[in-house]
Design a protein that fits this description.
Chain lengths: 461, 221
């Protein structure tokens, strides 16, 4: 199972992962973009300042008798100082010969023009710098000469600004990512909720509930699934019904010949005086009776199942049903000389239920009590309403319960202490299923002195 | 007692007739409702066993018709299980009781007895023998002014013996008719009830006689 669940990851996790991956890519793009934009912006401003500075330097060049004079204007340095703690390098060269400043500064990629400053980037003295150069054509020593002013500035500030901006963008991105994952979790939960609802609706069902699912209440994407499920339920139902029909038919076919065999055996018994033969015949009749009773209970059980499936309760008087049940069983009680009575039966007790089902349950309860009572014993029926339940108890003075009474409501299960009594093991199953169909309860408890108390609880109407 | 059995399944009918004959009842069997109508018009019956689904109609309709004619003969309905209707509804239609087919004979006989006893309440069902009066409905015998209650099996035993006064009933016969086949019964079980009934009959002018090796009989002293 665990291998399978690893092979099929959860839809929700998959959706959230996809959403998160997409957001991560977007955040990375955002950070990169912001960083690029910040660099471009700070480069443009550095270029502007450097351009202005290099032009101011070039404009400060004077030709005099002594040659070329450079009157460094203080405004230039205050302008450059505004860029932060940067180092500056400059050179003035006439026709390629440096006459002032640092020698050997990186050469411009192409000769700068007079009007347009040239900018480039190059490393020097172990740092990454932005360079600007401009040219002037001046009369030096009576000759026209090309003077090139080169100014370089380190880019610490610029890089720092770009890094800072990118870092902020990254924080914002991380926040966004978290928000996306959180909302993604919420959204997927609400999007997947119909699946959970569907699962809960199926899980809530009783063991015999084979109604189709309500298709209209499922979202469009789940409709094919619900449809397929309903198709499956329909097939299951028809196959179950076929089995049940078969069982009913089979039980029915078995019962009639059994009854005939039983009569023949009883007639033979009546004509026989030989004690040994009579003993055998009685044993035979008992076994036939057992088979016949089993077949009847299989039919009862099938009837209970099919009525419970189409459960349609109406208002009933449980006290009247109990009285009727007592009257119906009285001849059988008399047959075994058992006192069957119901002291303090209330005049009426309204419940909502299915009269046929309750009648079958009551018949099986009383039949069971009579069967397990010793002759001349007493079976008592009690009916009490308490809380929201009507409690119908059948008390006998029989042999009591085996150690684990719960198992007695299972199909074809009989107590370990019942080998000598005729029975199929379906009687209490029928009672338990009737209780379940009504949303009630069936319990077997031992009585204080001896015997068993079987209680069927049904919701009051 | 004379019974009318209305049942279209010949084998089942034969079985019911034989079984009831064992109890000493005379049974006429008919296979259709129209025949049943003819029989009812020409003879008196103490009890009708009526199958619900007959080839020429519904037993319940037939029952409603004979009740409308003013006939109050007790009726026990027999139904096939699959067509079992509401028990209450069947009883409301005028039936006295109800068994499902194929019948459990011990149950059928017990129900017949109960219905007959109930029904006899209208007429005087009390019987006099020797010096006591037996009232099966009240389950008592009265000796002089003294009323003595009977338990179910004592009553049944007395009924059997009173139906054949002076004749011998074997132990086996009594066991077969007194106990259901579900019960494990020893041959001595009957003696307990004989002894009890004897006590109840003390001073009644009747004697429950044991004929060794043959059985029992009830005779006036």
């Amino acid at each position: 199972m665990s291998g399978q669940s690893r092979a099929v990851p959860s839809l929700r996790r998959r959706l959230v992962w996809q959403l998160a991956t997409l957001s991560l890519l977007l955040v990375l793009a955002l950070v990169t973009g912001v960083r690029y934009a910040a660099e471009t912006a700070s480069r443009a401003s550095q270029d502007a300042v450097l351009g202005a500075a290099v032009n101011a330097l070039a404009d400060a060049l004077r030709t005099s008798d002594q040659g070329l004079e450079l009157d460094l204007p203080p405004a230039v340095f205050s302008m450059l100082g505004a860029m932060g703690e940067e180092r500056l390098f400059y050179s003035v060269a006439i026709n390629g010969t440096v006459i002032s400043g640092y020698d050997g500064l990186p050469a411009p990629p192409r000769p700068p023009g007079q009007l347009v400053s040239l900018f480039w980037r190059a490393a020097w003295s172990g740092a990454d710098l932005t360079w600007a150069a401009t040219a002037r054509r001046l009369l030096v020593d009576g000759r026209l000469a090309d003077v090139v002013v080169t100014l370089g500035q380190t880019r610490h500030g610029q890089t720092a600004i770009a890094r800072e901006t990118a870092l902020r963008a990254a924080w914002v991105g991380a926040g966004l990512l978290l928000a996306v994952i959180a909302t993604g979790l919420l959204f997927t939960r609400s999007a997947l909720e119909p699946i959970d609802r569907l699962a809960a609706a199926i899980a809530r069902r009783g063991p015999h509930d084979l109604h189709p699912l309500h298709q209209a209440s499922a979202p469009r994407e789940l409709q094919p699934f619900v449809q397929a499920l309903n198709g499956f339920i329909a097939r299951l139902r028809s196959s179950l019904r076929m089995t049940e029909t078969f069982v009913v038919e089979a039980a029915h076919r078995v019962r009639t010949p059994l009854a005939l065999v039983q009569t023949e055996a009883e007639l033979t018994l009546a004509e026989t005086e030989d004690p040994a033969l009579r003993k055998r015949l009685r044993r035979m009749i008992r076994a036939i009776g057992e088979s016949s009773r089993s077949a009847s209970q299989i039919l009862d059980h099938a009837a209970v199942r099919s009525r419970a499936e189409r459960f349609s309760p109406s208002s009933l008087d449980l006290a009247a049903l109990a009285r009727d049940g007592l009257r119906a069983m009285a001849p059988l009680a008399e047959l075994r000389e058992i006192d069957l009575d119901a002291p303090d039966l209330p005049a009426s007790c309204k419940i909502r239920g299915d009269a046929r089902l309750i009648e079958m349950a009551l018949r099986n309860l009383l039949d069971n009590a009579l069967k397990y009572s010793a002759p001349e014993g007493r079976v008592t029926l009690r009916l009490k309403a308490g809380g929201r339940m009507a409690r119908l108890s059948v008390l006998d003075e029989g042999r009591g319960l085996p150690d684990d009474p719960e198992m007695l409501t299972g199909r074809f299960v009989r107590g370990a202490n019942s080998a000598d009594v005729v029975g199929s093991g379906l009687g209490l199953t029928i009672v338990a299923e009737v209780a379940a169909a009504h949303g009630g309860d069936f319990a077997l408890t031992p009585r204080e002195e001896k015997g068993t108390c079987a209680t069927l609880s049904l919701p009051l109407g | 007692m004379r019974f009318l059995l209305v049942e279209d399944n010949v084998e089942l009918a034969r079985a019911v007739v034989s079984r009831l004959a064992l109890e000493g009842h005379g049974v006429d069997h008919v296979g259709t409702l129209s025949e049943a109508g003819d029989y009812l018009r020409s003879a008196h019956y103490d009890l009708i066993l009526l199958d619900i689904s007959m080839p020429d109609g519904d037993g319940r309709t037939f029952l409603a018709r004979i009740r409308a004619d003013g006939r109050d003969t007790p009726v026990i309905m027999m139904t096939a299980h699959a067509s079992t209707g509401d028990r209450v509804a069947t009883l409301d239609n005028g039936a006295d009781d109800y068994v499902t087919k194929p019948v459990d004979f011990a149950e059928l006989l017990a129900r017949c007895r109960a219905v007959l006893r109930r029904h006899a309440g209208a007429a005087d069902s009390r019987r006099r023998f020797a010096g006591f009066v037996f009232d099966p409905l009240a389950a008592t015998i009265s000796v002089a002014e003294e009323v003595r209650p009977l338990r179910a099996r004592e009553l049944r035993l007395l009924e059997i013996l009173l139906n054949r006064p002076g004749q011998v009933c074997s132990k086996a016969q009594l066991i077969d008719r007194l106990f259901s086949y579900d019960e494990e019964v020893g041959d001595n079980a009957i003696e307990v009830y004989i002894a009890r009934l004897r006590r109840k009959l003390e001073g009644s002018g009747a004697r429950l006689e044991t004929l060794r090796g043959l059985g029992y009989r009830l005779i006036p002293e």
